[in-house]
Design brief:
The complex is a heterodimer of chains A (260) and B (382). Chain A folds into 2 domains: 217 residues, HUPs (Rossmann fold); 31 residues, no CATH class. Chain A contains 7 helices and 13 strands. In chain A, strands 11-10-9-12-8-1-6-7-13 form a 9-stranded mixed beta sheet, sandwiched between helices. Chain A has a two-stranded antiparallel sheet with strand order 2-5. In chain A, helix 2 packs antiparallel against helix 5 and helix 3 packs across helix 4. Chain B has 12 helices and 9 strands. Chain B has a 4-stranded antiparallel beta sheet with strand order 2-3-7-6, covered by helices on one side. Chain B has 382 residues and is α+β, with helices and mostly antiparallel strands. The two termini of chain B are 36 Å apart. The chains are: A alpha/beta (260), B alpha+beta (382). Chains A and B meet through helix 2 and helix 5 of A and helix 1 of B.
C-alpha cells in the first residue's frame, strides 16, 4: 500500500499575526509548525502502512523552511519526503497549489492520498478537492475513521450531528479530521534519521509548469485586503446585590447590546 | 564567526520543543504538587530513546554533540525541572562513569537499561559535611581481598531513593583529601545499601532527592569506576564543564518557561484600560529579561561548542553556570512582579518557576565557591 501525504507548514498557532500596513499582507512571527490536520493524515498513513505494508511519502509545497515539516514527517516514520520549492509559488492560491501538487503526484505510484481537512492558517480547505479534480480521483472529506482492505476503503465522514459511512474504490484522496487518531511523538531513532536525510526538491519546471502558471498570474483568486478583527470591549463589572445585578445584566443584554 | 545552530540542530530543537510541550508541560503542575517520582511520564518519555542522548549510536545512543545536548537540557527543564533533573541524571552524571569504566557485564546490567529508562541511575557526591568541598568526603572504600567495602552516608542525592544503581564518591585514604577519591558502582539490592530520609524541597519537586546509606556494603573489585586508583577527581574533570553548562541550560529552561508566562500575561492583563504590555515599565522588564537571556545563551552555547571542540572551557563553563542561573533568578522574580498578586498564587505557574530557580544556585556548585575558583584561575596563584 503506497500512501502519499500532503502536508503544509503553517505558522505556529502561538505565532503573532498582524495585518501589514498595506492591508494586503500579514506579518507573521517566524514560528512554524506542521499543520495540525496534516499530522492526523500522516499518523493515519503510518498506521495503514503498519497494517498493510508499503511506503509513506510526504510531499509539501512551500519555502525552504518547509523542509522542517518534512523532516518532522520522516521523524514520525514517513519513508520518504519531497519538497516542491520555487520562488514562483509565492502568492499562489489554492488552485495553482493544487495544480502543482497534482503534477507532482502524477509521477508517483500510490493507492491512497491523505491530507488534512484544511490548513489552520488560511482555513480554506480547498486544495484536496482540487487535487482530486485534477487527478480524476474520488475524494472523501472530514474523515474520522478509515478502514482499508482489498482495493477499497470504508470511511466514516463527520457531518453536523452525524456521520456518513462511505465506501470508495482506491486510489482515492481522503482528508483527515480531528478524532481520526492521536498523532505519535517521534522516537529518537526517527529524529536521528530525519536530521540526516537529504530531502529532494523539485521546481516549477520539474513539474512541467511555467513560472506564470505557478504564481499570482496563474491564480484564480486574489486577496484584496485583510480586515482587522473587531476588538472585544473591556470587561464591564456589574455592581450591586445578586438580584439587582442579574436584572441589570438582562437589561444590558436586551436593551443595550440587543442580543436577547 | 558563526553563531547559528546547524539545520539539524534547529530541527532537533523544534522536535524536542514539541515533544516537551506535548508530554511534559501538561504534567508539570501535577509533578510539582504531588512531589512523587512521575513513573508514568518516565515510562512514556524514556520509551522515545532520549536517555541515550550522549552515547554512541552503536550502543543505542544518539551520539549528540554537547551543543545539541544543551538544547535538550534547556527544553526538558522548560517543561518541568523536577522531571528534567531525573532524566538528566540518567543521561549524564548517573551513567558517565559506568559508560567510561564499566565492564561489558556491568554495562549490560546498568548502562544499557538506564539508556532505555528501565533502570534509574544516580551519582553521589554530597555528604552532611561536604558538598562543593569534595576533599571533605568521609565515605570510605576499604579493600578487603577482591572486594571493596563502602561505609558512609550521602545526602542530597538526585534520584537517590528510587535509583537502581549509584556511582558513589568515596575515599580510599582519608589522609589524602581529594587525592584519595574514587568512584564506585553500587547496585540496588546489595546488602547494606539503603535509601534514607527523603528531603522535602522548596522546588524541583517530583525529583526524589534524599539520603543513601552505605553500611559495610561489599562490592566486587571491578566496581571501581576508574582505570587507575585515586584518580577520581581527574575523571570527574572530564564531565565537570558539561555538568556546569548543563545546569546553565536548565536555568534557561526555567527562565524561558517563566518568560513565556510573563509575555502571555502582559499581552492579556488590562490595567487602566490598556494591556499592561503597553506600559513602559513593563516593556523595560521584557527588554532586560530578553537581553540577559540572550547573553546567557551565548555563554552556554559557546561553552558547549568549546567542550565539543575540546578547547579549554573550565572558566567559560563557570561563567555560563553563574550568569545563566543569576539571570534565571532575575527573570522568575520579574515575572512574579508582572503577574502582580497572581504571581503569589499557587493557582498559577510563576510561583513554581520562582521556587524551582533557587535550586540551581547550589546544584553544580554554589556561586560563592565558583567565583572563588574562577578568580583563582584568573589571578593565578601568588
Amino acid at each position: 500500500m503506497n500512501i502519499l501525504v500532503l502536508i503544509k507548514q503553517v505558522p505556529d498557532p502561538e505565532a503573532l499575526v498582524e495585518i501589514a500596513a498595506s492591508g494586503k499582507d500579514l506579518n507573521i512571527e517566524p514560528k512554524f509548525a506542521i499543520n495540525l490536520f496534516d499530522e492526523f493524515a500522516l499518523e493515519e498513513a503510518l498506521r495503514i502502512r503498519e497494517k498493510h505494508g508499503g511506503k509513506v511519502k510526504a510531499i509539501s509545497l512551500g519555502g525552504a523552511k518547509a523542509i522542517e515539516a518534512l523532516r518532522t514527517a520522516i521523524a514520525m516514520g514517513a519513508d520518504e519526503a519531497m519538497l516542491i520549492e520555487d520562488e514562483s509559488f509565492a502568492g499562489s492560491d489554492g488552485y495553482n497549489t493544487a495544480l502543482a501538487l497534482s503534477r507532482a503526484i502524477e509521477k508517483e505510484t500510490f493507492d491512497i492520498i491523505l491530507c488534512g481537512r484544511q490548513a489552520i492558517d488560511a482555513d480554506r480547505g480547498e486544495v484536496p478537492q482540487m487535487v482530486a479534480q485534477f487527478l480524476g480521483l474520488p475524494h472523501v472529506g472530514v474523515v474520522v475513521k478509515l478502514d482499508v482492505d482489498d482495493g477499497k476503503a470504508v470511511v466514516e465522514s463527520a457531518l453536523e450531528g452525524t456521520k456518513e459511512v462511505i465506501e470508495v474504490t482506491l486510489p482515492a484522496i481522503f482528508t483527515a479530521q480531528k478524532g481520526l487518531n492521536e498523532p505519535r511523538v517521534p522516537l529518537i531513532t526517527g529524529v536521528m534519521k530525519a536530521m540526516k536525510v537529504q530531502i529532494p526538491k523539485v521546481s516549477v519546471e520539474d513539474l512541467g509548469l511555467t513560472k506564470e502558471m505557478a504564481g499570482p498570474d496563474g491564480s484564480k483568486t486574489r486577496i484584496e485586503r485583510y480586515l482587522p478583527r473587531k476588538k472585544r470591549p473591556a470587561v464591564q463589572f456589574i455592581e450591586g446585590e445578586p438580584r439587582q445585578a442579574a436584572a441589570e445584566i438582562v437589561r444590558i443584554l436586551a436593551d443595550v447590546e440587543r442580543v436577547i | 564567526m558563526d553563531f547559528a545552530f546547524t539545520e539539524e540542530q534547529q530541527f532537533f530543537k523544534k522536535i524536542i520543543t514539541d515533544t516537551v510541550d506535548r508530554m511534559v508541560v501538561p504534567k508539570a503542575r501535577e509533578i510539582d504538587e504531588k512531589d512523587e517520582f512521575p513513573w508514568e511520564l518516565w515510562k512514556d518519555f524514556t520509551k522515545l530513546g532520549y536517555l541515550g542522548l550522549r552515547y554512541p549510536e552503536e550502543i543505542g545512543g544518539m551520539n549528540a554533540d554537547p551543543v545539541t545536548a544543551m538544547i535538550f537540557y534547556e527544553q526538558i527543564a522548560r517543561g518541568s525541572v523536577g522531571f528534567a533533573q531525573s532524566v538528566i541524571m540518567n543521561i549524564l552524571m548517573g551513567t558517565y562513569f559506568v559508560y567510561r569504566f564499566g565492564s561489558e557485564e556491568i554495562k549490560k546490567r546498568c548502562l544499557y537499561p538506564a539508556m532505555k529508562g528501565e533502570k534509574v541511575a544516580t551519582m553521589c557526591f554530597t555528604e552532611d559535611q561536604s558538598g562543593s568541598d569534595l576533599s571533605a568526603t568521609r565515605t570510605t572504600a576499604v579493600k578487603d581481598g577482591n572486594e571493596w567495602v563502602i561505609n558512609g552516608t550521602k545526602m542530597w542525592i538526585t534520584n537517590g531513593p528510587v535509583a537502581d544503581f549509584a556511582t558513589v564518591l568515596a575515599t580510599t585514604d582519608l589522609s589524602l583529601g581529594a587525592k584519595g577519591l574514587n568512584f564506585f558502582l553500587v547496585e540496588k539490592g546489595t546488602p547494606g545499601f539503603a535509601p534514607g530520609q527523603i528531603i522535602d524541597k522548596l522546588g524541583c519537586r517530583g525529583t526524589i532527592t534524599g539520603e543513601l546509606v552505605f553500611d559495610n556494603v561489599r562490592i566486587p573489585e571491578e566496581n571501581l569506576m576508574g582505570a587507575e586508583l585515586n584518580k577520581g577527581v581527574e575523571y570527574l574533570g572530564e564531565i565537570l564543564d558539561e555538568v556546569r553548562v548543563m545546569t546553565a541550560a536548565m536555568a534557561m529552561g526555567i527562565a524561558q518557561a517563566a518568560y513565556n508566562e510573563g509575555l502571555e500575561y502582559a499581552r492579556k492583563r488590562i490595567a487602566f484600560g490598556k494591556t499592561i504590555g503597553n506600559y513602559q515599565l513593563i516593556r523595560a522588564k521584557f527588554a532586560d529579561m530578553a537581553t540577559e537571556m540572550e547573553a546567557s545563551r551565548l555563554l552556554i552555547y559557546s561553552a558547549a561548542w568549546k567542550i565539543k571542540e575540546k578547547l579549554p572551557s573550565r572558566l567559560e563553563a563557570g561563567m555560563a553556570k553563574m550568569f545563566a542561573t543569576e539571570t534565571c533568578l532575575k527573570v522568575v522574580d520579574e515575572v512574579t512582579r508582572i503577574w502582580g498578586a497572581n504571581g503569589f498564587a499557587n493557582e498559577y505557574n510563576p510561583q513554581r518557576h520562582f521556587r524551582d530557580a533557587r535550586f540551581l544556585l547550589y546544584g553544580g556548585g554554589t556561586h560563592e565557591i565558583l567565583k572563588d575558583f574562577m578568580g583563582r584561575i584568573l589571578i593565578g596563584k601568588s
